[in-house]
Write a structure and sequence with these properties.
The protein has 351 residues and is of the alpha/beta class. Helices cover 36% and strands 20% of the residues. The protein is built from 12 helices and 13 strands. α7 packs parallel to α8.
Length: 351
């Protein structure tokens, strides 16, 4: 009986080996109820007849598919790997200045924060300007569920490019620009490698679909610190990989997107949480030092969480490269701000 059923299933399959339950009911010699009583299910009968992969074969095929799907991720890793050292601006003077911001979040940026930040670049002329992660927001690719009809991917990317252009014009050519990959950039690149051909076409029309063009790395001469492997399979693996995206400047000051950087025993700053915190530490190498969690550039009005609890700001950092010491000035942005004795007041249009 088993052999006869399997032969009959093979007989009524099409040229590609496909056989639906409805097709067999119309043409087969055995009732589907009889087949289920013998094999447990019609699908299992098809497996036994060689008309679909066995469970073991299917598991192998799924593993192959999973790894093939990550080939695009690996290509993105190749596209960005050389930008960690590109566009360095070495300077031998003893005292160096850095300007550090985190969590700008493209069009969600507060306009008053942006004005103060750009003017601070112009006045301070930092040796290094550091974007410590989440320069992009692109909520379309996030976890908060944005209505697809409201997507403006191209508009958000254009915003970032215009912001980088303003920063470059304010800083001049001598300032080194550094972008540390945050979780939003990491998620953006993973999503885009999975994206539909239509979405890739939209972005290709705008920039040419490469990571450096998408992020403006060559146009604005930006070093991109991105050690994380995009080709991860689990959320915990991805989080571990993103944790590799940090940079130590002058061997004595660290910028890390995540607060885990504070445990590495080096003075520095992190972002991610949009709230300013400061902790005091001591080491035999650096003596007494501070670790700052910076406020964001993201406006405090946020529809998806309690943004009113956030703080906004950025940091000016002075480094003695000879003694390996640093001083961090945190600039708090409210409806007014003060940077180096210059006061700024929020305009009505910036509300």
């Amino acid at each position: 009986m088993i052999t006869e059923i399997l032969q009959d299933l093979q007989l009524h399959a099409d040229s590609e080996g496909n056989l639906s339950r409805a097709r067999y009911r119309e043409n087969g010699s055995f009732s589907t109820e009889k087949i289920e009583s013998v094999f447990g299910s019609f699908r299992e009968a098809r497996r036994q007849a060689g008309l679909e992969p066995t469970r073991g074969q299917k598991q192998v095929l799924n593993q192959i598919a999973k790894h093939v799907s990550h080939d695009d991720y690996r290509q993105f890793v190749v596209d960005r790997k050389d930008y960690g050292d590109k566009y360095r601006r070495p300077d031998s003077k003893r005292f160096q200045s850095m300007l550090v911001c985190t969590d700008v979040h493209d069009i969600e940026c507060d306009p008053f924060w942006r004005r103060v930040f750009i003017d601070t670049i112009r006045r301070v002329q930092p040796d290094i300007l550091i974007f410590g992660g989440d320069l992009f927001d692109l909520a379309e690719f996030g976890k908060y569920g944005v209505d697809p009809r409201e997507w403006d991917i191209v508009g958000r990317i254009k915003w970032v490019h215009e912001f980088l252009r303003e920063c470059r014009e304010a800083a001049g050519d001598s300032t080194e620009f550094v972008l540390i990959e945050g979780n939003h950039e990491h998620r953006l690149l993973r999503h885009l490698s999975d994206a539909t051909p239509a979405l890739k076409t939209v972005l290709s029309d705008l920039h040419g679909f490469t990571v450096p063009k998408l992020l403006g790395l060559d146009e604005f001469e930006v070093r991109y610190v991105a050690r994380a492997d995009l080709a991860t399979f689990t959320k915990s693996d991805a989080k571990h990989e993103i944790g590799k995206n940090y940079e130590v400047f002058y061997d004595c000051f660290m910028v890390d997107h995540f607060p885990a950087g504070a445990a590495r025993g080096v003075p520095g700053v992190n972002g991610h949480h949009h709230k300013h915190l400061v902790d005091a530490y001591y080491s035999h190498v650096f003596g007494s030092y501070e670790w700052h969690q910076l406020g964001s550039g993201h406006r405090r009005a946020a529809s998806y969480c309690d943004g009113e609890k956030w703080s906004m700001g950025f940091a000016i950092v002075h480094v003695d490269t000879q003694e390996k010491r640093s001083i961090t000035e945190y600039v708090d942005i409210r409806d007014f701000a003060c940077v180096g004795g210059t006061y700024y007041v929020r305009e009505p249009s910036e509300s």
